[in-house]
Design brief:
By secondary structure, the protein is an all-beta fold. It has no helices and eleven strands. It starts with a strand and ends with a strand.
């Protein structure tokens, strides 16, 4: 489910929520204890995910075209294997953006995982182990249209 709103005051909002009810419907392997993984949740698939983003752009005056945005992302816990023997914890991350548009030029600065949170993003117990999620990432761009 997703909702989007753009107000005349320069505010834009976006909210999204996902709920997945996944299940392994046929056995793909036999677990170490001799049981089947049928009926379990597939590894790496969160039941819940949500995000919220707000952006404000100045519409007039000396700062016209300057914008700030911030958002929060939530990814629910997942299982680390199809046997559902252990869980990868849920994570909540904060992102931010700064942008400026003037005549034909557009400048953007985006920061994901603003607070550089260290978290486990996924596990593949049967082969590779667990992996940390991406740390703070800062991305800038300049665009000119003629």
């Amino acid at each position: 489910m997703e909702g989007v709103a753009s107000l005349d005051t320069g505010f834009d909002f976006r909210a999204a929520y996902t709920w997945l009810d996944t299940e392994i419907t046929s056995p793909t392997s036999i677990n170490e204890d001799g049981t089947s993984n049928q009926g379990n949740t597939p590894f790496g698939v969160p039941a819940h995910a949500a995000s919220l983003w707000a952006n404000y752009t100045v519409g007039s005056g000396r700062l016209e075209g300057l914008g700030l945005g911030a958002g929060i992302r939530y990814v629910g816990s997942t299982y680390g294997d199809d046997a559902n023997s252990f869980k990868v914890p849920a994570v909540t991350l904060v992102d931010a953006a700064l942008h400026y548009k003037w005549q034909n030029a557009e400048l953007n600065l985006n920061v994901s995982n603003l607070f550089d949170k260290r978290y486990v993003a996924s596990c593949f117990a049967e082969s590779f182990g667990c992996f940390y999620g991406e740390g703070r990432r800062i991305k800038g761009s300049v665009k000119y249209t003629w």
